[in-house]
Structures are given as C-alpha cells and as structure tokens.
Design brief:
single chain, DNA ligase (ATP) activity, 7 helices, 2 domains, alpha+beta, Alpha-Beta Plaits, 16 strands, about 25% helix, globular, six-stranded mixed sheet, DNA ligase, four-stranded antiparallel sheet
Length: about 300
C-alpha cells in the first residue's frame, strides 16, 4: 500500500494492494472533541488492518455512516453504498424482505480503506456469508443504566464468564466503545434461533443470580442502576459492533478487546476501559490479538449445551 503522512496529515492513497482507492477530505475534522481528522481515521484503520480484517472477512457488513461527525446525520445501511467499486465483493443475504438483497464483504486491505473513507462504524452478524443464519459465535451486550456504569458491567461480565465456563464455553471481552461491554463466545456452528434461546437463558440466569444488578428486558423504566444483558444480537438479522471499529462519538472511542485482569480491575473501580485510536497499536504489541480464538479456523469450537 502506498501511504505517506506527516504528523498524521496523510496524502491521498492512490493505490492499495493493487487497487486505486480515491480518498477525500483528509483534513476534515470528524471527531471534534479530539480534533481527529478523516486522514487520521484512515491511518488508524491502515495500522490495525491485520487485527480487524479477520473479524470482517466472510461476514456481510453493515455501516453506520457519520460523514459529518457524530453530531451530524447518522444513517445505518446494509445495502452496498452508491458508487461501490466493482472489485468490492458483495454477497446475497437471505434474511431480508428483498430476495435480491446483497451486502458488502470486506476481505482485504483495499476494501477496508474504501469503506473507511466513507466514515463508518462497522457492524457484523454472528454468522458468515457461507452459512447465513448459522452462528459461529455468541454475543452478550452488557448495557448499563445510570447510575450503573462500567464497573457494574464488569461485575456482570465476570459472573457470566463463570456461568459460561460451567457449560464448557470460553468467553472473551471487549469494550463496546460506548458505555458497556461485549462478551463474545466461539461456538460450533449453531442455528441462530438456538443461540438466541441459549443467550436469553443466560440473561435470565444472570437476573436470578444477581437480581439487584442484572436485567434481561430492555424496558427503559426498569433500567436505572442495572445492567441490561442484551441477548437479542444473536438473532440472525442483528449485528454487533465489530472488534476494533471506531464509534460515532465525540471522542473516537474504539471497540477494544480487553483482558480479564483488566475487567476484574475495572469491576473493583480501578482504571476505566476507554481506548482511543492511538492506544490500539501499543495494546496489540503488549497483548497480541486477544480475540484471535474467535477467528482461528483451526480451533475446536464447543457446541452449546
């Protein structure tokens, strides 16, 4: 990839992995609280491509676009955006009212940089294009209702980790990039409906085990001071923020894999788990790719009980 930059002020990329990728408005400030420009966003994705691409490959991607920053218009789209290059792969997605619908799959550096130039959050389902509606991972989105916050989410995550381990399942954690925490569990390919049912059972078990803290229903009136264990993202039609995606917030927070030691520390009220683009390369150097078990094709994936 031909790249050049000076103090993060990048010149347009003209060629990426043999593809011409026109870039635009590199000096435009997208995240005003940090002054982060579009060029810096592109630099971030180029830097972490090796980590994010395994989580994007073979999964139809949905985009939350915010080209004028998080305070501007935000729109969620599953359809290939107008002007999608012919070399960006698309796949049929049957879980839609439109039988001819297709979605983008980002299977290399050039497609990743083309998509990043649109200024998007990346969202992916729990299944791959080869087996639509057959999940190879389970996700639980832990969403706190004020005054509950990240420490409470981490306490719930630790409880759920033990509960999953009792069923022979390994859980991995990442920040949502917003207020909460995501737990991801590699599983043997299982119909999404069955995964959804099991995930709902986990949320109900959490509510029974930690009634003062856990909620399995989304109803807003019940949320204050509790952690909503959102099991719904296991449905075939739902998506979750992809690991390492930037989020459309005032600060460019990253949905970042974290260690269980970090989760335990945060549960005790220790250091918070908020990460920005400049943090990620150092974390990868220190910890490696903490979610690698989710994308390792040679790893045995246990069945749901």
């Amino acid at each position: 990839m031909r790249l050049s930059w000076n103090s993060y002020r990048m010149t347009p990329i003209t060629e990426v992995a043999g593809r011409r990728v026109p870039l635009s408005n590199l000096d435009k400030v997208i995240h005003p609280a940090s002054g982060t420009t579009k060029g810096e966003i592109l630099h971030y994705y180029a830097t972490v491509a090796g980590a994010i691409l395994p989580h994007l490959r073979e999964r139809p991607v949905s985009f939350l676009r915010y080209p004028d920053g998080p305070a501007g218009a935000l729109f969620f789209t599953k359809n290939p955006p107008p002007g999608t290059p012919s070399w960006v792969r698309t796949v049929p997605v049957p879980h839609t009212d439109d039988p001819g619908a297709r979605q983008v799959v980002l299977d290399g550096l050039a497609p990743l940089m083309w998509a990043a130039n649109l200024v998007v959050e990346f969202h992916t389902p729990q299944w791959t294009a080869a087996e639509p509606g057959v999940a190879d991972r389970l996700v639980l989105d832990l969403d706190p209702g004020e005054p509950a916050g990240l420490p409470e989410c981490c306490a719930v995550a630790l409880w759920l980790r033990e509960r999953l381990a009792a069923d022979g399942l390994d859980a991995y954690a990442k920040t949502s990039g917003a207020k909460g925490l995501h737990l991801l569990v590699p599983i043997a390919p299982t119909p999404s409906a069955a995964v959804s049912a099991y995930a709902k059972g986990l949320a109900l078990a959490g509510e029974a085990g930690l009634p003062e803290l856990v909620l399995h229903r989304m109803k807003r009136a019940l949320r204050p001071g509790k952690v909503f264990v959102d099991h719904s993202q296991n449905a075939a039609a739902k998506t979750t923020a992809t690991p390492y995606t930037l989020r459309a917030r005032a600060l460019p927070t990253v949905s970042t894999p974290v260690t269980w030691d970090e989760v335990e520390s945060a549960a005790r009220g220790g250091e918070g788990l908020v990460f920005l683009p400049d943090d990620i390369a150092g974390r990868l150097a220190r910890h490696g790719e903490l979610l690698a078990p989710l994308t390792d094709p040679g790893r045995d994936r246990p069945p749901l009980p």
